[in-house]
Amino acid sequence: MIETEIEQVNATGLFCYKYGFFSRSGFACEPGDELIFIDLPELYAG
C-alpha cells in the first residue's frame, strides 16, 4: 500500500525526499530513510 501511495505522488510530478504515514493500528513494516511512520499514541503523546 505504501509503495502505491508513493507512486501516486510521483505521478503528479512531485518528487519528495520523505513520506509520512499515519496509522491508528500500527505498521507491518519498518520505517526507512525516506519513510516516517506515526501511530496514534505518538500523535497524542505530549
Please tell me about this protein's structure.
The protein is of the alpha+beta class and 46 residues long. It has one domain. Helix content is 33%, strand content 22%. It has two helices and two strands, in the order H-E-E-H. The chain has helices spanning 2-11, 40-44, and strands at 19-23, 35-39. The model has no long low-confidence stretch (mean pLDDT 88).
Helical fraction:
25-40%
- Please report which band the strand proportion falls in: under 5%, 5-15%, 15-25%, 25-35%, 35-45% or over 45%: 15-25%
Which class do the helix and strand fractions yield? alpha+beta
Average of per-residue pLDDT values: 88
Largest sheet: 2 strands, parallel
Q: Between the first and last Cα atoms, what is the distance in angstroms? A: 29 Å
Cα Rg? 12 Å
> What is the tally of beta strands?
2
Order of helices and strands: HEEH
Shape: elongated
Uncertain stretches: none
Helical stretch tally: 2
Domain count, please report it.
Answer: 1
Main-sheet strand order equals: 1-2
Provide a quick synopsis of the model.
The chain is of the alpha+beta class and 46 residues long. Helix content is 33%, strand content 22%. The protein is built from 2 helices and 2 strands; from the N terminus they run αββα.
